[in-house]
Amino acid sequence: MNRQIILKSRPKGLPTQANFEISETQVPSLNDGELLVKAKFISVDPYMRSRMSDAKSYVPSFEVGKPLDGGVVAEVIESRHPDFVAGDAILGHLQWQEIQTVKAESATKLDNKVPLSYYLGILGMPGLTAYFGLNEIGKPVAGETVVVSGAAGAVGMVVCQIARLKGCRVVGIAGSDEKNAYLKNVLKVDEVINYHTEKNIKAAIARACPDGVDVYYDNVGGEISDAVISNINKFARIILCGQISVYNNTEIPVGPRPQPIMVKKSALMQGFIVSNYSDRFGEGVKQLAQWLGEGKLTYQETIVQGFETLPETFLGLFHGKNTGKMLVEMKD
Ligand code: NDP
Fold first, then answer.
1. Which regions in the chain score pLDDT beneath 50?
2. What is the whole-number distance in angstroms between the Cα of residue 125 and the centre of ligand 1?
3. So what's the pLDDT on residue 132?
């Protein structure tokens, strides 16, 4: 049996299990230049929500009736390419399918000196998103205050630590006391705010940032960002990384318009997509791996067991079920 997960229908608002279907398919036959691979870890990411809709974006939409796809760490079962042998671990952009073929040139062979799942997290797309977004747009300077929303997630957790390494005061915003305890006690974030229990986030940010906000790394958007932006300093930099709080909205929300504050504070607000920096990914991975090796970075994952849990695990991202990178591991 070779299972795959297909998009059954496009969601309206918050997706549900009914938008996905598990189906069975043949194990594909292998051609020259290809690898037959078995998934080990499959990544679930917030950006997949926009791919479930048919709105035009920077990545193509998933097709109804076809398997979803994304970042996957897999093991080579059989190789018809001289650079790979059975047993190699690879990273690829693959389907949500247990066994599949992949063109060898699109697979990256992985070194197992670190846990293989890290290539979907701190040494993969989320880690690179944190590294380039913070450094290239935020340009943090020692002594400045950096506020991070979605701080206990795959990207946010790395942003908090890099900002600390740069000598900044770091304030993390996350959705539970457990996440905030991890941020404070393990990652040594200076101040934390639980946006679910805090009644006045704007006032909480003012308290946590007595010198104002110099850099805001925005993973969530919405009212949390409105509150942070009302506390920015002159020449603040606002990094628009993600807006998860509005991904399931059926109408575009109208909130406070930030432009008057941006003018008054001569502030910069810039969106980005991590692939803007694809020609520098090597540099990013090298630096992140070095910090990891030196013990300057640490990382947490939420790993759920079993291929069939993929839809539910993905949906968990919108309910804060993860601390650090959310992944599904295949059972043997
Ligand atoms: P996370 O690991 O942070 O997982 C999502 C987290 O978002 C949840 O755990 C939850 O944490 C929080 N969240 C969910 N719903 C809401 C809400 N309504 N309001 C506030 N917080 C919410 O995901 P990633 O680290 O992978 O991604 C973080 C952001 O970065 C996303 O917006 C994503 O789309 C974006 N991104 C952008 C990239 C780019 O190239 N620009 C690349 C990668 C990611 P909590 O318990 O704290 O609520």
1. none
2. 13
3. 98
The DSSP code sequence of 292-306 is HHTTS----EEEEE-
With contact defined as beta carbons under 8 Å apart, do 325 and 301 qualify?
Answer: yes
Residues 261-292 pLDDT 10s: 999 999 999 999 999 999 999 999 999 999 99
Give me ligand 1 centre to Cα 165, in Å: 22
pTM summary value: 0.98
Residue 25: both structure tokens together: 């398919």
Measure the CA–CA gap between 196 and 180, rounded to whole angstroms. Answer: 12
Contact by Cβ (8 Å): 191, 211: no
Q: Is the dihedral of CA 280, 281, 283, 288 positive or negative?
A: positive
221 in contact with ligand 1, CB cutoff 6 A: no
Say if ligand 1 is within 6 A of residue 194 CB.
no
Residue 138 Cβ < 6 Å to ligand 1: no
Whether the CB of 101 sits within 6 Å of ligand 1: no
Ligand 1 centroid–CA 42 distance in Å is 17
Which of helix, strand or coil describes residue 189? coil
